Amino acid sequence: DIDDVGHKYYLELVLEDVLDKDSTVNCTAEVLYHLGSKNVAPDVQFTLEGELKNTDEADNVFYNQIKSLEKELVAENIPDSHGNVSPEMEPIRRLAWVASGYVIWQNSTENTKFHLAQIKRVKQVKRSDEYLEFDYMVLLHEMVSQEIIPWQMTVLWHPQHGVQVTQDSRQPKHASE
Amino acid sequence: MKILLVFTALVAAAGTEQLFRGDQVLRITASNEEQITLLRVLGEQAELQIDFWRDLTGPGHPADLWVPFPSLQAVKIFLEFHSISYSVMIEDVQALLDEEKKNMTRSRRIQRSISTFDFASYHTLEEIYDWMDMLVDDHPNLVSKIQIGQSYENRPLYVLKFSTGGSNRPAIWLDTGIHSREWITQATGVWTANKIVKEYGQDPSVTAILDSMDIFFEIITNPDGFVFTHSSNRLWRKTRSINAGSSCVGVDPNRNWDAGFGGSGSSSDPCSETYRGPYAHSESEVKAIVDFIRSHGNVKSVISIHSYSQMLLFPYGYKRTPAAHHQELNELAKKAVSDLAAMYGTKYAYGSVADTIYLADGTTVDWAYDNGVKYSFTFELRDTGRYGFLLPSTQIIPTATETWPALLDIMVHVLEHPY
Fold first, then answer.
1. Is B96 among the domain residues?
2. Beta carbons within 8 Å of B381's beta carbon, 6+ residues apart
3. Residues B269 and B410 in one domain
4. Is position B368 within any domain?
5. How far apart are CA B142 and CA B165, in angstroms?
6. Which residue, among B198, B222, B200, has the nearest Cα to B210 in the 3D structure?
7. What is the pLDDT along chain B (419 residues), one digit of tens a residue?
8. Domains A1-53 and A54-176 belong to one CATH topology
9. Is B271 on the interface with A (CB under 8 A)?
10. Which residues of chain A does B363 touch, with a Cβ-Cβ cutoff of 8 Å?
């Protein structure tokens, strides 16, 4: 507890490579949830004790694959109902995972626990520069309320410049059916 | 969904003889009342033979329009002329019918016997109900099927009874699928029911348990929700009961039990995923279990299986006060979780619901515990969020396999600690 400021958490984490369980990096972090305000993202400071793996090769393969598509990429329901993700869609999914991580961070409080549940729809947006742009509609699952929240995200990516969420907005829940 | 019903009718009537080649289904969204009127007039032109599959309800609400091939051009010109926005939902109705027929024939050929049931994939309600009948047919001296009630939409609520005889023996209750989107649970339920049958007479613990106790297993605890996850919304959680005065459907069946009902761990809003319902046991799916356990009178353990989070939990969820048997339940959970992890290294947290996950009132295990069922546990199966509810089917068998020793630990403890 930090009087008049908020609650600070000290964390020790182990980061594990999704593609290689034996590749881990230790990490320490401090997270400060601000008192009262629901519109302010928590402050996060972190230190990596080691280096993250170099992904240049895989990044370039993905980049070139998308660049060489004749028509803009469009896809739905990733994963599908059975949890399947086709190999071509794996990088699209990981990109959504990273981008939704940003959205989740911006919208988290001490009483929320968000996960990316599914990509409902993704559409590539044509650009004249070297960036890749994707318009995502994702479903976020919030654990405490158990709600499924549709969220739109516009995501930019470039192998050397990384990920950017340039626009995001929470969508109304459809009165289902 | 209405589309499926119409398809079935069409298929039955026409024998799918290319009658719908080139027909399309258009999704139309009128943006004002004037466009609605125009569309109604369009629908009334008999010679066009168009049909609203999903009706015009108002501006901004999509309507689905089936347009036979000969009328397509005229209809599209009409829509474009009046700037009515539309998209092509089904490009060729005949192609879709052909595809569906192919898929249905293929899976019907596959489910011929119990030994060819594919435990490593997710199944429909019908497939699981059929499999249950096959299990009973193959093991009539061990398994029987009872119906404990009906769902809101009048589907039967089936429970498998595993018993080697006796009369009203002390019993263990297991349920999966109370939250329909948690598909790994129904799938684990099927595998586990099969495992119980396989191990009786082979595994000493299972044999000991069934020689003096009965097991009751409800695999599809929320059939209406389950069907809905297949037909319309894969992430549907609640029942499908209509809520008076609300356009939102469904009650959270795990907030509907009469234990701390109506507190801060549930919602009074019908549109909420944790809506508790108008009153405790309002849901027929819940009432059926309440009535069954009450009238049985000798249930010694209730194990309710959910996903996801990888946790083993026990009462209470509606209050932070520890349960009277907290220590014993905690020790048992610790052992079960350790044996689960021993299989593939999957880590589970454990503790009371309130301490470990969040405050939740009106839950199954709290009701069971407060009604004399000491060994009441909730499992939250794989994973911890990477796939969440959409757990790949490749993880079904590993999940069921690792959960089995934990279930067995609890059941053995119940056997060895009669009360």
1. no
2. B182, B184, B185, B188, B305, B306, B307, B308, B310, B399, B403
3. yes
4. yes
5. 8
6. B200
7. 555 555 455 545 444 456 777 888 888 888 888 888 888 888 888 788 888 877 777 787 888 888 888 888 888 888 888 888 888 877 777 777 777 666 665 555 555 565 689 999 999 999 999 999 999 999 999 999 999 999 999 999 999 999 999 999 999 999 999 999 999 999 999 999 999 999 999 999 999 999 999 999 999 999 999 999 999 999 999 999 999 999 999 999 999 999 999 999 999 999 999 999 999 999 999 999 999 999 999 999 999 999 999 999 999 999 999 999 999 999 999 999 999 999 999 999 999 999 999 999 999 999 999 999 999 999 999 999 999 999 999 999 999 999 999 999 999 999 999 99
8. yes
9. yes
10. none
Distance CA A155, CA A152 (A): 10
Query: In this structure, are B172 and B69 located in the same domain?
Result: no
Question: How many whole angstroms separate alpha carbon B351 and alpha carbon B330?
Answer: 6
Fold of A54-176: Nuclear Transport Factor 2; Chain: A, (3.10.450)
Structural domain boundaries enclosing B45:
24-91
Asked if residues B414 and B172 have their Cβ atoms less than 8 Å apart, the reply is yes
CATH of residue B64's domain is: 3.30.70.340
Overall number of domains in chain B? 2
Q: Does A24 touch chain B (CB under 8 A)?
A: no
Query: For an interface test with B, which of A120, A141, A174 has the most B Cβ atoms less than 10 Å from its Cβ?
Result: A141
DSSP one-letter string for B333-357: HHHHHHHHHHHH----EEEEHHHHT
Measure CB to CB from residue B273 to each of A81, A117, A145 and give the nearest one: A145
Same domain, B154 and B39: no
Active site residues of B: 380
* Topology adopted by domain A1-53: Nuclear Transport Factor 2; Chain: A, (3.10.450)
Measured in whole angstroms, how far is the alpha carbon of residue A108 from the centre of its chain? 13
Residue A64: Cβ within 10 Å count: 10
Longest dimension (CA), chain B: 78
User: In chain B, positions 4-33, which contact chain A (CB-CB < 8 Å)?
Assistant: none
Mark whether B198 and B255 lie in a shared domain.
yes
The closest of B381, B76, B389, B78 to B237, measured between CA atoms, is B389
As a residue count, chain A comes to 177
Predicted interface score ipTM higher than 0.85: yes
Is B1 within a domain?
Answer: no
pTM: 0.81
- DSSP state at residue A148: E
Are A170 and A139 in contact, with CB atoms under 8 Å apart?
A: no
| CATH label of the domain that carries residue B290 | 3.40.630.10
